[in-house]
Design goal:
heterodimer; A: alpha/beta; seven-stranded mixed sheet; 21 strands; elongated; B: alpha+beta; two-stranded antiparallel sheet; 4 strands; globular
Chain lengths: 366, 107
């Protein structure tokens, strides 16, 4: 049997050998970043695409996966999830490489005119062009705002579960009322390899955003004394010898109780932050990147910005505007990638060359 | 940048804005709402929802309301999140056209 290599692992291994040399890196896998793959693909530019989330779709998936969108041309209605799925299907022929769950940490111009680009996972690129389709920024976990808690971040305080086994056999306090909070609560309470010693769920009210079935299951486990649910907000911490020993939970009754713990897990959802993009030497105005409207290029030649993250006179943050910007940015970038090639506008209806890059048959008309 | 709830909201608190916020950045006090500037993504969806036009983008806040930028940030830290619309304050309609209500704010 042939060994099945996980492509993500191969890519990471390759990155240790040296940077990935490419023509284009797209930062952000929201709808506009995905469509940028398409527009570059038609010009025969293969792209690498990076996103801080572990899945493509950006705001469409993170903020409104199930809400209907009515203003995509020729699509009377679709959800954020459907839009993302359709775009992924549309860009399939172009074989873009996805680098998910990582943020771009460094962008620097090289002497040869290309850019060095690095991500938080250590993936390195040398690229001729960069397309920033960063939307409203990268989605980061919302933090618990309690004095002195920051120093436990990553040791006893966790905003995501990367390795569930580190919580096995521990006394856990889980804060939040969404699906992440409930799913992990159930995971750590129920028998299995990650079963915790004890689990206390804390949520500010007795109503949950999480799926009703998970909530019902959680309440069942409370009645069976397998876990505890406390209504309240974390208002302070208790520490001893540099260890977090408990949290102060102020209940709806105004009484503050100390809840002891080994590990604190907080699931307050994700909120977008502009992050390191602000440090790449780009002209930024009101948290948006200033671009021209001919090529949607920034003040740094070779770096383009498309979608919600850019600004120009008359800018409207619409997905359809982002699609237009992606098309013009691709043409604007072509001279950096193919300095000696004349780029012609071709139509997917009639161009045999485009049919070839799309991998479709050229239709025969009688 | 962020969006800011200004004086018109005081003693009205219609809460139409909180339903539409995609990032749940509204915070609720006894008779005023604020926007947490660390959470707001400037989508501007809340602006037209407010029946008293209390919400403005930070850079459009008129000079006599500038103190509300700081006030939103400060109060957002201590007030709880509100994500579902509820009834306005009982005498909201009496207060909605009144100016100079800052002394009415309950922190």
């Amino acid at each position: 049997m042939e060994p099945q290599l996980n492509p993500a692992i191969s890519a990471t291994a390759a990155s240790h050998d040296g940077p990935i040399e490419t023509d284009a890196v797209i930062v952000g896998a929201g709808p506009v970043g995905l469509f940028q793959v398409f527009e570059l693909g038609l010009l025969e530019v293969k792209a690498h695409i990076i996103d801080s989330l572990a899945y493509p779709g950006g705001q469409c998936i993170e903020l409104y996966p199930d809400k209907p969108i009515y203003d995509i041309p020729a699509v009377p209605v679709c959800t954020g999830k459907e839009l993302t799925d359709n775009l992924l299907k549309q860009i399939e022929p172009f074989g873009a490489t996805f680098h998910l769950g990582q943020e771009v940490t460094l962008v620097a111009k090289r002497e040869d005119g290309r850019f060095d680009l690095e991500t938080s996972k250590g993936t390195r690129f040398v690229t001729k062009t960069i397309f920033i389709a960063g939307g409203v920024g990268s989605f980061q976990p919302r933090t618990l705002k309690v004095d002195g808690i920051e120093k436990f971040d990553g040791t006893q305080l966790h905003y995501r579960v990367r390795n569930p086994s580190q919580f096995a056999g521990k006394n856990l306090v889980i804060v939040g009322g969404g699906d992440s909070a409930l799913d992990w609560t159930l995971n750590f309470v129920q028998d299995g390899p990650n079963k915790a010693e004890s689990v206390i769920l804390v949520h500010r009210r007795d109503g949950f955003k999480a799926a009703p079935a998970s909530v019902a299951k959680m309440k069942e486990l409370c009645e069976a004394y397998e876990m505890q649910f406390v209504v309240g907000q974390v208002t302070g911490i208790e520490e001893q010898d540099g260890q977090l020993t408990g949290v102060k939970v102020t209940g709806g009754d105004g009484v503050t109780r100390v809840v002891p713990l080994d590990m604190l897990l907080v699931f307050f959802g994700l909120s977008p932050k502009l992050g390191p993009i602000a440090e790449w030497g780009l002209n930024i105005e009101r948290k948006q990147i200033v671009v021209d409207t001919e090529k949607f290029e920034t003040n740094v030649p070779g770096i383009f910005a498309v979608g919600d993250i850019n600004t120009y006179p008359g800018k409207k943050k619409l997905i359809l505007s982002g699609f237009h910007e992606a098309a013009l940015a691709a043409f604007g970038a072509a001279p950096y990638i193919f300095p000696d090639k004349r780029i012609h506008l071709q139509y997917t209806t009639t161009s045999p060359k485009l049919h070839k890059v799309l991998g479709v048959e050229t239709p025969v008309f009688d | 940048m962020t969006h800011v709830v200004t004086e018109s909201c005081i003693r009205c608190k219609y809460t139409d804005c909180v339903d539409v916020c995609p990032v749940d950045c509204f915070r609720e006090g006894p008779n005023f709402l604020t926007i947490d500037p660390d959470e707001c993504i400037d989508c501007a969806v809340c602006i037209p929802e407010c029946p008293v036009n209390a919400i403005l983008p930070e850079e459009d806040v008129p000079s006599d309301q500038l103190k509300f930028i700081k006030l939103n940030a400060e109060l957002a830290k201590k007030w709880p999140s509100i994500t579902k619309r509820k009834a306005a304050l009982p005498d909201a309609d009496e207060w909605k056209d009144r100016k100079d209500k800052l002394d009415q704010l309950i922190r």
